[in-house]
Design goal:
Helix content: 25-40%
Oligomer: single chain
Number of strands: 11
Distance between the termini: 47 Å
Largest sheet: 6 strands, antiparallel
Number of helices: 13
Strand content: 15-25%
Length: 339
C-alpha cells in the first residue's frame, strides 16, 4: 500500500487548543510505502475523523519534549495520513498517567526518563478523541494503532482526557493506570497563578469535578495507582524505584540525579514555566486559600467570594461522591481518595 507524504509549508494551527488535521499548510505530496510510518522520525499527531485516518508528522527527535503535541507543531517537516483500516493492533499494556492537572505529572515524567524509561508527555490524538461529543468508542482501534506508532512505554495524558477516560483505556488489553492528585487548595492556587489571577472558578470547579468522576470511572474497572504530588515532589529514589517496578521497567536512577531534577522547573521553556508565571503574577499563592477559607465561613459574599464558595463546594464533592474501594485512606482534603 502507498501513502502520501507532504512537506509542511507552514503551521497555521499554532494557537489551536487541541491538535487537528488542518493545522498545517502543505506542499504537493509524493508516494511513500506504508513502512514509512514505522521510521523513527514519524509520530502520530491527530485524527482526521472525516477521512477516518491518522495524521502523522515527521520531526527531529522529540523524546525530551515537555509537551509533545506542541513540539510536533513547532518542528513538523512533513505530514503522512494513514487510513484507520491500515493501522496495526496496538500494544497490550502501556502505562497511562491521568491527573487533575497542575500536580507534578511533568516532573514525574522527567524522573522516569532519567531512569531510562521511554515516557512521553501529552500526545494529542488521545485528547482529540476524549473531547468528542459524544465519545466515539469506535475510535478504540485507531487509538491502539496510533499508540503502536508512538513507541513510548509511559504516556502522560492531558487534563482533557478525563472527559472520556474509558474510551482511552478500553483501547488496550491490560493498561497500567496512574492517577495523580494534589492538595486541592494548592491545586487551585497553582491554577490561579497560571491564569494571571483571572481564574474562571466555574471552569475550575467543572474540571475538578470531571477529573474526580474520571477517577471514579477508572477505579470501577481497573486497579488504579493513585499518587499524590505531595508524596513525590522531592523525588525520593525509593518512591521512584517503586513506580519503575510498577511500570515493569528495569531502570534505576540515582538520588543525586533526582535531586537535580527536583530543583529545576520541569516545564522550563514553555508558556507555563515558573519564570513566565512570575511575569504574569506576583500575587501570593495563599490568596486563593484565603478566598476559600473566607467563603466557607460565610458572611459578606461579593461575586468573587461567591465563586470561591462554589470552589469550596467542589472540595466537599470529593468526600460525598467519591467512595473508597480498597487501600489506604488519606487524611486531609482528599480523605475519601484511596490508594
Amino acid at each position: 500500500m502507498k501513502l502520501i507524504e507532504s512537506r509542511v509549508r507552514s503551521c497555521i494551527g499554532k494557537q489551536a487548543f487541541i491538535s487537528g488535521p488542518d493545522d498545517f499548510a502543505l506542499e504537493p505530496g509524493r508516494e511513500v510505502p506504508l513502512s514509512r510510518v514505522f521510521d523513527p522520525d514519524v509520530s502520530p499527531y491527530c485524527f482526521d475523523l472525516a477521512a477516518r485516518s491518522l495524521v502523522c508528522v515527521s520531526t527531529p527527535d522529540l523524546s525530551d519534549a515537555v509537551f509533545f503535541y506542541r513540539a510536533q507543531r513547532e518542528h513538523a517537516r512533513s505530514v503522512i495520513k494513514i487510513p484507520f483500516a491500515s493501522l496495526a493492533t496496538g500494544p497490550p499494556s502501556p502505562t497511562l498517567i491521568f491527573s487533575i492537572g497542575r500536580c507534578g505529572s511533568t516532573l514525574l515524567v522527567k524522573a522516569l526518563r532519567a531512569a531510562g524509561v521511554r515516557a512521553v508527555s501529552e500526545p494529542d490524538f488521545y485528547t482529540q478523541a476524549a473531547c468528542g461529543e459524544p465519545p466515539d468508542f469506535s475510535l478504540r482501534g485507531a487509538i491502539a494503532g496510533a499508540t503502536r506508532l508512538l513507541r513510548y512505554q509511559v504516556i502522560k495524558l492531558r487534563l482533557e482526557c478525563n472527559n472520556a477516560p474509558l474510551l482511552i483505556t478500553g483501547a488496550f488489553e491490560a493498561p497500567r493506570i496512574m492517577f495523580i492528585l494534589r492538595d486541592p487548595l494548592d491545586w487551585a492556587a497553582s491554577l490561579r497563578r497560571l491564569s494571571r489571577n483571572s481564574l474562571d472558578l466555574d471552569w475550575a470547579v467543572a474540571q475538578l469535578r470531571r477529573s474526580l468522576l474520571a477517577l471514579d470511572e477508572l477505579n470501577r474497572g481497573y486497579a488504579v495507582r493513585i499518587c499524590y504530588y505531595e508524596d513525590f515532589r522531592e523525588l525520593d529514589a525509593r518512591w521512584i524505584g517503586d513506580v519503575l517496578a510498577w511500570t515493569g521497567s528495569p531502570g534505576s536512577v540515582a538520588q543525586d540525579t533526582l535531586r537535580s531534577i527536583a530543583a529545576t522547573d520541569a516545564q522550563d521553556g514553555t508558556v507555563v514555566s515558573r519564570a513566565r508565571r512570575s511575569e504574569r503574577s506576583r500575587v501570593p499563592s495563599v490568596v486563593c486559600t484565603c478566598l476559600v477559607t473566607v467563603a466557607a465561613r460565610g458572611g459578606d459574599r461579593p461575586a468573587g467570594i461567591e465563586a470561591a464558595l462554589r470552589l469550596a463546594s467542589a472540595f466537599t464533592f470529593i468526600a460525598e461522591a467519591f467512595r473508597p474501594r480498597a487501600g489506604r485512606v488519606r487524611n486531609g482534603p482528599w480523605k475519601s481518595a484511596v490508594e
